[in-house]
Amino acid sequence: MTKKINVGIKGAAGYTGGETLRLLLNHPHVDVTFLESRSQSGKPVTSVHTDLVGETDLTFSTDFNKPIDVLFLCLSHGESKNLLAKAHFPSTTRIIDLGNDFRLGDTASGREFVYGLPELQRDKIKTAKNIANPGCFATTIQLGLLPLAKAGLLKEVHTTGITGSTGAGQKLQETTHFSWRANNISAYKALTHQHLGEINQTLKSLQPTFSEDVNFIPWRGDFARGIFVTSILESNLSLEEANELYKEFYASHPFTHVSDEIIDLKQVVNTNKCLIHLEKVGKKLVIHSITDNLLKGASGQAIQNMNLMWV
Amino acid sequence: MTKKINVGIKGAAGYTGGETLRLLLNHPHVDVTFLESRSQSGKPVTSVHTDLVGETDLTFSTDFNKPIDVLFLCLSHGESKNLLAKAHFPSTTRIIDLGNDFRLGDTASGREFVYGLPELQRDKIKTAKNIANPGCFATTIQLGLLPLAKAGLLKEVHTTGITGSTGAGQKLQETTHFSWRANNISAYKALTHQHLGEINQTLKSLQPTFSEDVNFIPWRGDFARGIFVTSILESNLSLEEANELYKEFYASHPFTHVSDEIIDLKQVVNTNKCLIHLEKVGKKLVIHSITDNLLKGASGQAIQNMNLMWV
Amino acid sequence: MTKKINVGIKGAAGYTGGETLRLLLNHPHVDVTFLESRSQSGKPVTSVHTDLVGETDLTFSTDFNKPIDVLFLCLSHGESKNLLAKAHFPSTTRIIDLGNDFRLGDTASGREFVYGLPELQRDKIKTAKNIANPGCFATTIQLGLLPLAKAGLLKEVHTTGITGSTGAGQKLQETTHFSWRANNISAYKALTHQHLGEINQTLKSLQPTFSEDVNFIPWRGDFARGIFVTSILESNLSLEEANELYKEFYASHPFTHVSDEIIDLKQVVNTNKCLIHLEKVGKKLVIHSITDNLLKGASGQAIQNMNLMWV
Amino acid sequence: MTKKINVGIKGAAGYTGGETLRLLLNHPHVDVTFLESRSQSGKPVTSVHTDLVGETDLTFSTDFNKPIDVLFLCLSHGESKNLLAKAHFPSTTRIIDLGNDFRLGDTASGREFVYGLPELQRDKIKTAKNIANPGCFATTIQLGLLPLAKAGLLKEVHTTGITGSTGAGQKLQETTHFSWRANNISAYKALTHQHLGEINQTLKSLQPTFSEDVNFIPWRGDFARGIFVTSILESNLSLEEANELYKEFYASHPFTHVSDEIIDLKQVVNTNKCLIHLEKVGKKLVIHSITDNLLKGASGQAIQNMNLMWV
Description:
Strand order of the largest sheet of chain A: 8-9-7-10-13-12-11
Mean pLDDT of chain A: 97
Order of helices and strands of chain A: EHEEHEEHEHEHEHEEHEEEH
Low-confidence stretches of chain A: none
Number of strands of chain A: 13
Largest sheet of chain A: 7 strands, mixed
Strand content of chain A: 15-25%
CATH class of the largest domain in chain A: Alpha Beta
Largest interface: A-B, 38 and 38 residues
Distance between the termini of chain A: 9 Å
Oligomer: homotetramer
Helix content of chain A: 25-40%
CATH topology of the largest domain in chain A: Dihydrodipicolinate Reductase, domain 2
Number of domains of chain A: 2
């Protein structure tokens, strides 16, 4: 590949913006054209993403109407749709939206978005014009269930997931105040988490008869990065059959691995991997799946999608 | 009360031994007669329980055959039964076993043990000669389910619980190595945790027809103290009915409270409390329950039981 | 003591207010008359200090003009002086100010304040009308140096101290955002920390010839509670002489102990203790001192001062 | 570069072995020939370095006598010297020792070692046959002092440093037990840390008249990775002069940066960077320097040295 991919980030001062930038700066085939941020315009990016000191002299700007190949939208939920309703980008600019505006089939300015979970639909991503990047919990839960849904074996699922504080973003909140969150655990949005929409959409696309619930309990963890999920459901598969099903499903996917050994969250933190471990006890199949919420759960998967579009 | 209660601890150098001692030293009606430890005999207790510096001059000894009113057994699982098979204590000495040897009805040297969960059977505890103190996960899970079982409303339950590292004791292990456990989450003993025995025993005693599973997934947390549990089951109760049921059940129990507000683990750490919070979504009842694993889950409940026996 | 001490807290919704309340609720000789908070008036205190659920039915109010024996001021720095310039309290009401307004000899409405470090001047505290409660770093550093200053042996000191996040209070700030502070260390106010004023005032009162610097580097720690300080200076004392000096100095002080063993922060967290450990290497004396910033460094010491006034 | 560098690691199952391997697997010009470990021989490396699942199929072996270009010694202190006294490696094999056996000029089997601090002596490293890789605290402290020593401006220094638990290695110890270390701070080896030897050797090589002490107090931190150091000394330099001195010194060194903004540890964790920030208060110059103890303080610097030898 000789010509570089020119990219821009809108909303570059937040956590997913910074993480996307960190990956792009180290990408051998990418040139970063602009880093848009209303709140930080004019400042060096290293004043916000201080871990990048020594790696870049770029500054934030409010200008984002430069010709680029890929635009990453790292905005609050709802803002991407507003932006596309107002701003007009050349049809040759591909958009990767890290928010949740287009994950359920919505369009804007005639742009259609492909749901960017490579393990679900890599071929569609390769030819997509626009990508709706999956949510972090949604990615981790789906990767734990895709092979079963594909095989039509999904039943009612009970899922608990715990997430790092970076999932709540950069905004100061009581639930991200250090004195409160350190050594603390809490539950939120029990059975009503917004990612259930995209999870159910995927599962029903693979197993149209699936009409049961994914009963999802999210917890806030006392750590900064990572998601640990355990799902449990009834299954007639033996452990061997389940492992075979999963390993075959993920054989060609470089970032998702089925581990015969028990897994722990730090195996995937700071990587784009998803690890899965299965257990069978009586009639119940237990599925543990883990990711880094900012990488495979956000920015890493966004770059993975970009790479797939440019292969 | 004029005469002090004379107490001894066997296995006083471990975490539950130290926590029990800390409470006893501050108990207005207790004299500590001996602190037995094979490994630390002859050493000041402050050399092991260093947080007690300035509070006691006691030393560990191997002698535990002094006349006392209450003997706390803070031993590894299995050791209490071995001890009682060999050593003979006066029948006037009451025994509170913090291990799991006598929770399922086993006896030793003719001693019968009452399961020491005050919210389940306070009156039996008051007249008990010997107490089998409940396990930490078992306490937290049961307190979340007792009112339903008492009302005969229990159905299949899905429970996830996360525990602090002190639950694994003082012994150096890979899963309690700081570099591994910091910022890490992992699952263990999925659906097979040893506390399921005492949990099911209790639930079936209250609701004899209950034959479903308590599907319990334990997680290791990256914090030192506390247990957070979320249980979920189908229920026809409205949220109001459920809250009324729980509040009535716990009205006379000073350490267990039903909170109308969401709860977080640190509310109970370093206390003997259990807090419970209920949610209802569709047909599902969600029950969050939290304790400090070393207090309400072990030493605190042991002292609570002693207090009940001496009222 | 038959008659209860009637107390009130102004600024009861913050961290030191809550910690003071927690101690007062468990104090056998105290009745809490009011809990003033502008921001939380009308709400139950358990809605803010959620760890007190089940322990109190008190609510916050804006009224603080009720007759009381002791008023605890738990306000932002500067607010106590403003308050006393406007509000008039009966001369029989003793005031304990946890802020830094009166530590350096300032007065308000004719009220003089005694600097409330019991290990420095217990007798003055016993007869004081008003107390200026010391700062958290100031307490920990001074307790490490008092015996040397008393003996006239102080020379230039180099001190590094690390503090838990609760020292920065309840207000949401970038440096107390969990995603930033977890696993992070940073320095601030190098050589210019505001506690140096009260530290130098004390040291010079004991050793008037002391004109060297206490070179104090404060660090922010990635934990919620506690202060660890190491001070180093040249000394002709042998280790034995130094230990003798320190142990004699603190012999009658129940909360400050000189440990022959190395110390670690968690020995004092959740207690009102200060532990000190000395080392001698070549000509240098090394002094480690530790406290809980919210207890011996704030609310605990405030209650200690109240107790001394009422003995 | 067409021909790959063939490398082997002896002691590949420990923390520095694993971290070195992780970097080598992602190095575009390296082939890993063997991974020696006595304790783990025959096992897949992913069973020990579980974060590498999906990245390598290599197994540990006891064989390390294969022809290679670079041998990394990731052994306990003292073992490298023992090894070289017994085993004979071709003179064409360059050795990078991550232990402390050869940092002070010792030789073995006629091999001389160049102290591998690139910011001190990059040119010597480029032509070295063998490298003694600096210690983690030694690296961080020296990088904070090199420009002053080079300019002959060093005076007595007071240094405090805090380190992550990975600095203590993989071995289970009481001071790395999670229940002890979480939220805890402690001091150790005050003024006697073993890295003072290499620190003083470097400083005196640059400023031969320097005969004062580097008074170094090491602390154990409650985090896994990183070192934060603050050094303080008298200086006649203004802040501007000091910054100019430091920036000029490090201008050509890609991993060490002088920041005009305050710095915090997480800026460098998971990178090979050292960041430095200067402050001037009165006559005192304050120097903060930070690294990741496993990268710039160990494995990262080892790879940096290898790269310099192969440029």
